[in-house]
Write a structure and sequence with these properties.
Elements lengths: L3 H6 L1 H10 L6 H37 L5 H33 L18 E6 L12 H8 L4 H7 L10 H20 L3 E3 L4 E3 H7 L11 E2 L4 E3 L4 H5 L5 E4 L5 E10 L18 E11 L4 H18 L4 E5 L11 E9 L4 E12 L1 H6 L1 E4 L6 E3 L1 E9 H11 L7 E2 L13 E2 L4
Parallel strand pairs: 2-7, 6-12
Antiparallel strand pairs: 1-9, 3-5, 4-5, 7-8, 8-14, 9-10, 10-11, 11-14, 12-13, 15-16
Helix pairs in contact: 3-4, 5-12
This protein binds one RNA strand of 92 nucleotides through α3 and α4.
RNA sequence: GGUGGGGUGGCUGAGCGGUUGAAAGCGGCAGUCUUGAAAACUGUUGUGGGGACUUCUCCCCACCGUGAGUUCAAAUCUCACCCCCACCGCCA
């Protein structure tokens, strides 16, 4: 959420942000609404001040056992007017609020302006493996090795669910442990294991609601949502709280399953592990002081890329243009790992700075040590990294001519030292 | 799921229709004392919004789980909802 006062004072910046994001919102209407709300408010406050004064007088008269009937009668009339204005104010507030919740964050000045085609590759690491045979896709490989059962997952749950089996399941578990260990032991994050179901306030705090409700799995009877990412429960840890300045920065990491309806996305990238309704992810979340948030973003990217480097996966770092930026983010780097079988770069991580956008929605502050006043923190998060696609990249890049898959060295300690997965097991 | 108790400021906890934004204690901050610290004492200490003045500040409004209602007047009364605690039942 943007600061209303900021919008009022800088409508041009907001207009430009919307234009760069290729969105149309009626900012004029918003400003008009804001203006009329403030008119109502000042009239109302004047009346309420009068009422408070009259109240004291009535109280004094009654205490002195004098007659207060006149005053009480005129108060009754004033109260009626106040009621009316309060209703008007409530209406204006509701309109203003829902409008504010629908305005996306302002893109950072350093990112390219335009649609997805303006995505900029900043750097890359490693080089795609070369084979003296035609490399198979992760779908073929996992079928042959018997480590993913797509058909039965569909029988059990529906299309675009996956079922890992045997060494596939163990590989998944090894990856989770490997990533959590790296972030906790080497990068200084504290591990969190949060709830996978969250309430409406939490989903609103991080910006999934109200705009993207149809993309979320929702339990109607309880009004709870399956988390689309650990970002939601972990960022909301400090919702409605004021932290001490010396407690910042806070670094959290969490493994969770992630649930996405992917409504309307059928047909694109839906084969195999590319786009599934449930996947595992290790996420990193930071709460930092505003002045440091862009340095923290760079460090976040390094923490995420180290996962890929240790796994020996070639990757590239892209900065997303304004038109591709998620609703809540000011700036976002995507990490793409190369998968040799399908010959594509797969997005396995997004690292974003939300500045105060989520903090304002979720009301997360810290107390400035000098001024003693609360200020909004900046929040960031990044995948470190998403598993399904990473598994696809590992299978495809580490495949051998005989159809087996070599296990990246960094994972072997998590798999009893096993060096390769073969169709025999 | 059943029964009972309860949600007040950073925390503990009073208040249960009329200067109560809210006693008291703890904590925090500043000062006195001290070589320094502790102790003691003194002062100060919620959040959000609007306005005046525009960088010292002042004024006004709202907020006692949430929402509706009763009343001239609600933290205080009524109703609904949410949440928490205890015990019982069920259960991984």
């Amino acid at each position: 959420m943007l600061d209303l006062k900021f919008i009022r004072e800088n409508p041009d910046i907001v207009r430009k942000a919307l234009k760069d994001r290729a969105l149309k919102l009626d900012i004029e209407g918003l400003l008009k609404l804001d203006d009329s709300r403030r008119k109502i408010l000042s009239e109302l406050e004047e009346l309420r001040a009068g009422k408070n004064k009259a109240n004291e007088e009535i109280s004094a008269l009654l205490k002195a056992k004098s007659d207060a009937a006149d005053k009480i009668a005129s108060m009754k009339e004033a109260s009626g007017k106040i009621d009316m204005l309060e209703n008007e104010l409530k209406e204006a507030d509701a309109g203003l609020n829902s409008f504010l919740l629908s305005i996306p964050n302002i893109p950072h000045s350093s990112i390219p302006i335009g649609d997805a085609s303006r995505k900029e590759i900043l750097r890359s690491w490693g080089k795609p493996p070369e084979f003296d045979f035609k490399p198979a896709t992760h779908i073929e490989l996992s079928q042959r090795l018997g480590i993913i059962d797509f058909a039965r997952a569909t029988k059990i749950s529906g299309s675009n669910f996956i079922l890992f089996k045997g060494w596939g399941a163990r590989l998944e578990r090894a990856l989770i442990n490997f990533m959590l260990d790296l972030h906790t032991e080497k990068h200084g994050y504290t591990e969190i294991f949060p709830p996978f179901l969250v309430n409406r306030s939490s989903m609103t705090g991080t910006g999934q609601l109200p705009k993207m409700e149809e993309d979320m799995y929702r339990l109607k009877d309880d009004d709870l949502f399956l988390i689309p990412t650990a970002e939601v429960p972990v960022t909301n840890i400090f919702r409605d709280e004021i932290l001490n300045e010396e407690d910042l920065p806070v670094y959290y990491t969490a493994y969770t399953a992630c649930f996405r309806r992917e409504a309307g996305s059928y047909g694109k990238d839906t084969r195999g592990l590319m786009r599934v309704h449930q996947f595992d992810k290790v996420e990193m979340v930071k709460f930092v002081k505003p002045a440091t948030s862009y340095d923290e973003l760079e460090k976040l990217v390094v923490d995420a890329t180290e996962v890929l480097e240790l796994l020996g996966l070639p990757y590239r770092v892209a900065v997303l243009p304004t038109g591709d930026l998620s609703f809540s983010a000011s700036k976002c780097y995507d990490l793409e790992a190369y998968a040799a079988g399908i010959g594509q770069w797969l997005e396995v991580s997004s690292c974003s700075n939300f500045e105060s956008f989520q903090a304002r929605r979720a009301n997360i502050k810290f107390r400035n040590k000098v001024t003693r006043k609360p200020e909004f923190v900046h929040t960031l998060n990044g995948s470190g990294v998403a598993l399904a696609r990473t598994v696809a990249a590992i299978l495809e890049n580490y495949q051998q001519k005989d159809g087996s898959v070599v296990i990246p060295e960094a994972l072997r300690p998590y798999l009893n030292g096993k060096e390769r997965i073969t169709s025999e097991g």
